[in-house]
Amino acid sequence: MSPSAASHHRSHSLLLLQKLLNLRDKASPLTLILDNLEQPAHPVLNEFMTRAKISKAKIIFIALSTLKKPPLADVFIRGRHKSLQQLASEIIPHVTPSPSSPNQKNILLFDTIHPLLSIPSHLPSFLQSIIPPLTTSCLLVYHTDIPLLPQSNPYTPTPLSVLTHLSTSILTLTPLSHVLATKAAENKSLPAPVFGLHSSREGVLLSLRSPSSPQGVVITMELRRKSGRVVQEKFVLFPSPPTTTAQHRQQTKGIGGVILLSDHPAFSTETTEEEGEGIQATFNLGLTEKQRRDREGVVLPYFDAQTEVGGGGGRILYDMGREDDFDEEEDEI
């Protein structure tokens, strides 16, 4: 990939994620966030709420596992032990456009979707009723390490497959420390390390990241365009520090940084011009002007045999030298 094409790809990919995080231009009405015990979705949800506060969007937080209202949330709805109909009746009044502000943007955040997955076939109608077109975006958090009860009908699609089919974007979260450890093992041709529940050993909670681990979340984005084309890219999100509502009104630069995973120092393979000039080799593959002229003037052996005048075309002419040993049997052949 040429430098200009690589720069265009980098800018285009970052722009897509920025539009998704900022909820601009109806980037994704329904976003599915896949997290786990090793990498919870809290940093990403906080980033969405931080950017939504800047754009003056109403943040509606549906708590199915959270006990305390987040500081940046405008509306806090407790959804534990409520049916889909009861929950929809509480959400719809907050997302319905009012005559005074018909273009008010809303963002629905479900801290977990697992309590609502008892009947997967009811999810499409439920989500359609609470997501008005053009004004509301919805974020669903799905914990990939929490098992679900087996379904009675084996031909019924799983809840994850239903959510994957309905979502217009999917964000899979991985700790940056795990990705860096896997990359370091790959560079040394060692087996990739295993983390968390996949290690299948006791004391699994001890494998969680320590405070000294590199801070950052690796986001694998799968964005589905209206044309049907799927855009996939990996990013590193450095979360912004948590701020209260009052602090946030004074600090508009508290947004976390986002870079491509390929631009991270551990994954970058590009060599800068300064590094290239500093590399010194013990040999030189270039040719001087005199060496180039001398090479062009060299006459290859048996060059005349390649022409019909000199060698009859394809016949090799060989003149015996003084040191050659004449063999009569070979001459007869």
Automatic annotation (TrEMBL):
Pfam families: Elong_Iki1
Location of the region described as Disordered in the Swiss-Prot/TrEMBL record: 314-333
Signal sequence coordinates: none
Coiled-coil stretches: none
Keywords annotated in UniProt: Cytoplasm, Nucleus, tRNA processing
Listed InterPro entries: Elp5, P-loop_NTPase
Acidic residues composition bias: residue spans: 322-333
Cited PANTHER family: ELONGATOR COMPLEX PROTEIN 5
Similarity annotation: Belongs to the ELP5 family.
Name of the protein in its database record: Elongator complex protein 5
Species of the source: Podospora pseudopauciseta
